[in-house]
Design goal:
- 55% of the residues lie in helices and 7% in strands.
- By secondary structure, it is mainly alpha-helical.
- It has 2 domains: 3-199 and 307-335, 3-Layer(aba) Sandwich (Rossmann fold); 221-300, Tyrosyl-Transfer RNA Synthetase, CATH 1.10.240.
- The strands form 2 sheets. A 3-stranded parallel sheet has the order 1-2-3.
- The protein is globular.
C-alpha cells in the first residue's frame, strides 16, 4: 500500500461499506442512479469493498453461465468509467475470494429455512422470472450468501435499493444468531437507501436486465432516444388532447432524476393541461440522459484501449479483499472450534 493510499484510508473514518452487482448483462440507468453514483461518493468517506457478484449470477443463470466472464470485464470498465477508483476502493470478483463460500456454508448450518422463504424477493422473482426453474437451494439461499458477503468484511453500512432492505435485515439476524451461539464476532450492519434507488424501466416496472426494459450505460444517443421515447406514460393520456398527471407517469420519474425544477414545472403544467404531448414531454429528459452518458462512454472508450486494465484491477482487489477475508474466517473458525 502506498503512503498516499494509507493516508487516504486513515482519513475515511465512517466505517466499512460493502456492496456488489451481478454480472448478468450490461449495466443501466438503474445501476447508475440507484448504486454507482452513491458508491462514488461513499469511497470518499468510507473504506469500500465493491464486488462483482458472479456466484450470485448463477442463482438465476446457472444453465447459461457463458457470459459471466465477459460481463465481469464490462462491469469493471463501467465502474471505472463512472468514477470508482481502485486506488481508493477495493474492486474484486466474489468467486476469487473463496471465504465467501466458506462463510455461507457455515451460516447455512445455523439459519432456519423459513428465514429464507420469507424474504420478499424470493416469491417476487419466482413470479417475474417464470421461464426459469428457480426451485434450487442456490436461489433460496442467495440472501444468506449476501449475508456472508457483507459480514465477511464486517460492514457497518450496506447501500441498497429499498427492495433489498429485507436482505440487510436478514443479515442483522444472521449476525445476532451467530454471535449468540459462538460469541461476538460480527457487527450488525445498517442498510442505506439512496435517493433515486428505484428507477423505472421503459415498461414502468423497476429497471432490470431481467425484464428487458433497461437503458444501458453503453447505449449511444440514438439507442437512448429510441428506448425512452417509447417509455410508458400516464395511461389516461390515450390521445394527445387527454390531460394527465405526472404523479401517475413512470416517465416523469426520470424527469425527477434528470431535469431541473423549472423543466419539471413546465412539463407538469403541459401534462395536466394537455398542452404538450407525451413525446414532447420526454424530449428534455432524453436529452439530459444523453448528456450524462456521453462523458461516461468517452472514458470507457479510453479505458478499453488500456490492455489488461480489468485484470490488473481485479488482481489487486482480490489481494486486498482476501487479506480481510482470511482474518475474519480465522475468527469464525476459532469461535466455532474449527481451528
Amino acid at each position: 500500500m502506498s503512503n498516499n493510499q494509507q493516508t487516504s484510508d486513515e482519513s475515511r473514518s465512517s466505517g466499512i461499506v460493502v456492496s456488489g452487482t451481478r454480472p448478468t448483462g450490461a449495466l443501466h440507468l438503474g445501476h447508475l442512479n440507484g448504486a454507482l453514483k452513491n458508491w462514488v461518493q461513499l469511497q470518499k468517506t468510507a473504506r469500500c469493498f465493491f464486488f462483482v457478484a458472479d456466484w450470485h449470477a448463477l442463482t438465476t443463470d446457472y444453465a447459461e453461465p457463458g457470459g459471466i466472464a465477459e460481463n465481469t470485464r464490462a462491469m469493471i470498465l463501467d465502474w471505472l468509467a463512472v468514477g470508482l477508483d481502485p486506488d481508493v476502493s477495493v474492486l474484486f470478483r466474489q468467486s476469487q475470494v473463496p471465504e465467501h463460500a466458506e462463510l455461507h456454508l457455515l451460516f447455512s448450518m445455523i439459519i432456519p429455512v423459513p428465514w429464507l422463504e420469507r424474504v420478499p424477493s424470493y416469491k417476487e422473482q419466482q413470479d417475474q422470472l417464470q421461464g426459469r426453474d428457480l426451485s434450487t437451494y442456490g436461489f433460496l439461499g442467495y440472501p444468506l450468501l449476501q449475508s456472508a458477503d457483507i459480514l465477511l468484511y464486517k460492514a457497518a453500512r450496506v447501500p441498497v435499493g429499498e427492495d433489498q432492505l429485507p436482505h440487510v435485515e436478514l443479515t442483522r439476524e444472521v449476525a445476532r444468531r451467530f454471535n449468540r451461539f459462538y460469541g461476538p464476532v460480527f457487527p450488525e450492519p445498517t442498510g442505506m437507501v439512496v435517493e433515486a434507488a428505484r428507477v423505472p424501466g421503459t415498461d414502468g416496472r423497476k429497471m432490470s436486465k431481467s425484464y428487458g426494459n433497461a437503458v444501458a450505460l453503453t447505449d449511444d444517443a440514438d439507442a437512448v432516444h429510441t428506448k425512452l421515447v417509447r417509455m410508458v406514460t400516464d395511461p389516461r393520456r390515450q390521445r394527445r388532447s387527454d390531460p394527465g398527471d405526472p404523479k401517475d407517469c413512470p416517465a416523469f420519474r426520470l424527469h425527477e432524476i434528470y431535469c431541473t425544477e423549472q423543466e419539471r414545472a413546465e412539463v407538469t403544467q403541459g401534462c395536466r393541461t394537455a398542452s404538450i404531448g407525451c413525446v414532447d414531454c420526454k424530449k428534455v429528459m432524453i436529452r439530459r440522459v444523453q448528456d450524462e452518458l456521453a462523458p461516461i462512454q468517452e472514458r470507457r472508450r479510453e479505458l478499453t484501449l488500456r490492455r489488461g486494465i480489468t485484470e490488473e484491477v481485479l488482481a489487486e482487489g482480490r489481494k486486498q479483499a482476501a487479506a480481510v477475508a482470511e482474518t475474519t474466517m480465522g475468527e469464525v473458525r476459532g469461535a466455532m472450534g474449527l481451528l
